[in-house]
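User: tRNA-specific 2-thiouridylase MnmA, Microbacterium marmarense:
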Amino acid sequence: MRVLAAMSGGVDSAVAAARAVDAGHEVVGVHLALSRAGGTLRTGSRGCCTIEDAMDARRASDLLGIPFYVWDFSERFRDDVIDDFINEYRAGRTPNPCMRCNEKIKFAALLERAIELGFDAVCTGHYATLIDGPEGLELHRASDAAKDQSYVLGVLNAEQLAHTYFPLGSTPSKAIVRAEAAERGLTVAQKPDSHDICFIPDGDTRGWLAEKVGTATGEIVDRSGSVVGSHEGAHSFTVGQRRGLSLGTPAADGKPRFVLEVRPVSNTVVVGPKEALAIGEISGDRHSWAGRAPSETAFDCEVQIRAHADPVPARARVDSGVITVLPDTPFEGVAPGQTAVIYDGTRVVGQFTIAHTVSAVPATA
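Assistant: Predicted structure for tRNA-specific 2-thiouridylase MnmA:
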């Protein structure tokens, strides 16, 4: 088949493209230019999609003997990922830009163009597995639990899965991928993995948001509403945060306090004890199914609320387009805006954006 290999400039996408070539597919490499700052340089393992990454992707393509192109998706990335990130923080939510990038860029904009050009599938270096199930294609966790990326792929729907190709999903470890890259002569064999938010390469999310959203002094209150401190912008706080609160009034029990809630309308941050971070119910209405939808409106499952969190056994219910999840044991530190991915064993069932949370610990005066 004709395969468009999305090449980030890292070792995973390079080896994925190489395996697609070995499998006999007609492969073309493409690097997505997502930044308007064309001269952006990479610093260690921070960020991605820089000019150096584009050069690494080109060198890998040349070694593999496949055509290579750079496509400018910077405007779409700005609109669908960066602006969404800013707007979500303005609304007091904590978004996951990698989820939006997969949903809107890599498996929407890129896939749409690939299909228009006659490609059968988009190949990426994600660690996830596709399995032909009894009722259609299924998305499953990767063999390497430490590298599994099925969570960030939970936004893919059945049509998108039908045109994706994950050559690394059954690889037992990242070490094997690096060794294979070295054997192939790929210069990215020992290149560090990227981390943090790619469009904030220095890692200073708080400072970046302050520049984009602005600062405004507001109150920090406890669960009873008593003022215990002040801040320079509610957008710079996330649920579960402990550091950087600078509270003027200590807790009565002397224990540390954590951010429990961000209220953007009143520019207020609510803090409380660690046990108050326990969440007994989450719900949301922005959802999609990775393949077939559940046959029942209520079903047992496992739910993961962060890319590297442990899945939690739960009971999910779908009612009028809203998904509500009751975990067997409370989630900890859940913020509206996060993505909850639903699993049935290793299979990804679907996902939704968390809009509401209910504490498992009642507030006390």
